[in-house]
Amino acid sequence: MKGRTVDPDAELMLEFVQGNLLAFEQILKKYKSSVMNIAYHFIQDRAEAEDIAQEVFLKVHNSANRYSPSAKFSSWLYKITTNTCLNKLRSKKYLQIVSLNKSMQSAKNGINIEIPDTSSRYSEESEKNELCRLLKKAIDSLPVNQRMATILQKYEELSYREIAEIMECSTSAVDSLLHRAKQNLKRKLAPYLKKT
Amino acid sequence: MRCLKVRKKLSAFIDNELDETIRAKIEEHLRECFSCRHELMLLNQTWEVLEIWEKIELSENFEAKFWQRVREKAGEKEPLPQPRLFQRLTKIVIPASAIALIFSVLGLLCGIYLGNMLYLKETKVSPEDSLSLIKEELLYLESFENFPRESIGNIYISLASSGVLKKE
C-alpha cells in the first residue's frame, strides 16, 4: 500500500495516474507559466519556449504511469524542463550559435563572448530596452550550467537545495555556479553598472 | 574573516542561503571593509538588473493546443470533448441517469402493485352477490329451453330428439 505523500502536487499526479484528468489540468494550470518562462529565459525565443513547454507537459502526461513520488513534484518537472531545454539547445538549429560562441570563448574565465558596444547603433532605443538586450546577451553568454542555475534561482526563486536536486549536483556546486555566474554578469554589465 | 573568504560567500549572502552564524560574521566584516562592501554593492546591482527581464505570458490557447497534441499523440480520430466538460458531464449525467432508472423501476413496480390491488377490489363479490349471479346465469340457461314455437332453436331440438339429425 502506498503511503500518503506530503507534496500536494505529487498527490495530484497520483490522482491523474488513477485516471483523474482534472488533476492533470490543475498541474498544467499551476506550472505552465513557470515552465514556459524557464524555457524562455534559457532559449530566449518565445515560440521555441512555448513549444518546449508543450513538450515538457506531454512528457509528464505520457510518463505518468512511470511516475513515482520519490522527489518533490516541482523538482521532477523542472528537471524535465531543463533537460528538454538542453536537448533543444543541442539540436541542429542552436548548434551553429553554440559553435560561434565557442570560437569567441575565453578559456580562462569561462566567459564566452564579448558584448559589443551598441550604444550608438541603438541610440534611439530606451535605456531599459537597451539594458534588457545587453542582459539577454550576457545571460546567453554564460556557460549552460551557470545560466540554468541563474534562471532557476533568480526567476523561479528556487533554493540552492532545489536547484541541486534539479541539476543533479551538490548544493556547494550550485553555490559555486551562482558565484561564478554573478561574477561573469557583473563583468558583462559593468558599463551599465558604472552609470547607475 | 578574510576578504577572500568573504567574497566567495557574497553570492550565497545575497541569495540568503547562509546560516545565521556565517551571515553574522560576514556582516561584521562588511561593516569594517569598504572594498568588500563595494563588491557586495556591485553584485547586488548586477543581480537586481536581472529583474528588468520580465516574465512572459503564455498564449491564450496554450492549454487547448496541449490537449490537441495529447489527442494527436494518442492517435484519436474523433475529437474528444474538453476534459473539464467531460468530467463534469460524467459527474452529473451518470448519477442522474442511475437515479432516473431507479425511480422508473420503482414507479413500474408501484404501478403493477396498485393495479392488482384495484382489480382485486373491483372483482371482489360477497356470497349473496355470487349466489344471485349463479341464479341469474341459470336463468339464462333455462331461457334456452323455452324456445318459442317455430323458432330455429325449437326446430333444431325437435329434430335432434326425433333422431333425424343423427341419421344424416
Oligomeric category: heterodimer
| Main beta sheet of chain B | none
Compute the CA-based radius of gyration of chain A: 19 Å
Number of strand elements of chain B: 0
Radius of gyration of chain B: 53 Å
Question: Can you write the helix and strand succession of chain A as a string?
Answer: HHHHHHHHHH
> Tally of extended strands of chain A?
0
Helix content of chain A: over 70%
Judged by helices, strands and strand pairing, the structural class of chain B is: mainly alpha
Q: Helix/strand-derived class of chain A?
A: mainly alpha
Overall shape of chain A: it is globular
Helix content of chain B: over 70%
Largest interface, Cβ cutoff 8 Å:
A-B, 44 and 33 residues
Tell me what portion of residues of chain B adopts beta-strand conformation: under 5%
Q: What's the pLDDT, averaged over the residues of chain B? A: 81
Note the run of SSEs of chain B as H and E.
HHHHHHHH
How many helical elements of chain B? 8
Mean pLDDT of chain A: 82
The profile of the biggest β sheet of chain A is: none
Unreliable stretches of chain B (pLDDT < 50, length at least 5) are 77-81
Short synopsis of the structure:
The complex is a heterodimer of chains A (196) and B (168). By secondary structure, chain A is mainly alpha-helical. Chain A is built from ten helices and no strands.
Protein described:
The complex is a heterodimer of chains A (196) and B (168). With 196 residues, chain A is mostly helical. Chain A is 70% helix and 0% strand. Chain A has ten helices and no strands. Chain A has helices at 8-17, 21-43, 46-62, 73-90, 92-103, 127-140, 144-155, 160-167, 171-188, 190-195. In chain A, α2 runs antiparallel to α3 (46-62) and α2 (21-43) crosses α4 (73-90). In chain A, 35% of the residues are buried. By secondary structure, chain B is mostly helical. Helix content of chain B is 77%, strand content 0%. Chain B is built from eight helices and no strands. In chain B, α1 runs parallel beside α3. Chain B starts with a helix and ends with a helix. In chain B, 8% of the residues are buried. The A-B interface holds A 20-22, 24-25, 28-29, 32-33, 36-37, 40-41, 46, 49-50, 53-54, 57-58, 61-62, 128, 131-132, 135-136, 139, 150, 153-155, 159-160, 175, 178-179, 182, 185-186, 189, 192-193, 196 and B 8, 10-12, 14-15, 17, 42-43, 45-47, 49-53, 55-59, 62-63, 65-66, 69-70, 73, 83-84, 86-87.
